[in-house]
Amino acid sequence: MDDMKVRLLLLLMICLSVLSCRTVKQTVVKKEVPLITENKLLKNIEENELKYNTLFAKRIDASLKSANKSNDFRLSMKIQRDSFVQISVNAPLGIEVARILLTRDSVKFVDMHNKKYFLSDYSYFYDRFETELNYDYIQKIFTNSFVNINFESNPEKTKKYKLSRVDEGYELSMIQEKALGRKIKKLYKKKRKNKDFMLIQQKVTIDPTTFKPLSFFLEDIEEEAGVGVEYKNFKDFSGKLFPEKFVFDLFSAESKMNLKLEFQKIEFDVPVKSNFRVSSKYKPLMLSDEK
Q1: What confidence score (pLDDT) does residue 129 get?
Q2: pLDDT digits (tens, 9 = 90+) for 179-230
Q3: Which helix (H) or strand (E) holds 253?
Q4: Which of 3, 8, 82, 267 is deepest in the core (most CB within 10 A)?
């Protein structure tokens, strides 16, 4: 995997982590999906959330596609709940080429193939991209848990979900205003109608039987850009219901990137340890427009 693909993989994970409400409006219904109140739906989601202390996926088959290029590789992932998420990236022959370690207060990435590394706390991403990264969001994404992100700059403004019954199950959606700072404005090539904030639409689809998330999407409505993840092929892994496939999408009007993960085996509540080392010969990895 070349340097650009490694950076894209890291940035996709970061995007996914950045991009509770009590007022609900019922819309078009599907007869096969029962009526439910917001409080009951949220209670069922909480009661059916994955119960675990650790997660260990020794082999994950991955495919990363962008434009006319694609790369196949393998991952392994270890999660200690509320402590760390570690992902190893392996070439097809099994040689580790990159490792990511996320903890509650740090982001660490090492590219063994190109002998580069990135070490930071989460404030780095706010300083550069005005993005509030949160370990909890990342952990929830990788454990098929319900994600609820608040983008409102005004904490007193009430968030409102729109609850719909769709073919797949229940859909919770909302549109929020996210304030734009000077640095974020520079990232946009188009002329925005509104220069002070972006409108972010958040959608979560919930299975009506298992109450597991089936998808989670964030989209900047004006720019037609966003990120999302779909969970597919739920099956029994070590006695727990978990999706066999994750499909991540990062899209804009100019480009698209797709990352597919297929879990071959998952173990829960087995001992896991994080390990991260950077050789003194490695050089810092520059992200975005850093030089």
Answers
A1: 60
A2: 766 655 555 555 555 567 778 889 999 999 999 999 999 888 777 788 999 9
A3: none
A4: 8
Query: Which segments of the chain have a pLDDT < 70?
Result: 1-31, 126, 128-133, 151-159, 180-195, 287-291
pLDDT score at 131: 64
How many other C-beta atoms lie within 10 A of the C-beta of residue 147? 20
pLDDT recorded at residue 270: 97
CB 6 within 8 A of CB 90: no
Residues 16, 24: Cα–Cα separation, whole Å: 26
Question: How many helices and strands (H and E) does the chain possess?
Answer: 5, 15
* Residue of 180, 184, 164, 183 whose CA lies nearest to 172: 164
Tell me which residue of 276, 285, 284 sits closest to 101, measured CA to CA. Answer: 276
Q: How far is C-alpha 110 from the geometric centre of its chain's CA atoms?
A: 20
Phi, psi (deg, nearest 5) at residue 136: -60, -40
Q: pLDDT value at position 124?
A: 76
What is the spatial distance between Cα 159 and Cα 37, in angstroms, rounded to a whole number? 17
Provide the token pair at 273: 């340890």
* Residue 132: Cβ within 10 Å count: 15
Query: Is residue 273 within a helix (H) or strand (E), and if so which, with residue range?
Result: none
| Cβ neighbours of 103 (radius 10 Å) | 17
Q: List, as own/partner pairs, every contact residues 194-198 make where C-beta atoms lie below 8 angstroms and the sequence separation is at least 24, other chains included.
A: 194/222, 197/153, 198/222, 198/223
Burial class (CB in 10 A: 0-12, 13-18, 19+), 106: middle
3-state helix, strand, coil split of the chain in percent (to 5) is: 15, 45, 40
8 Å CB contact between 30 and 196: no
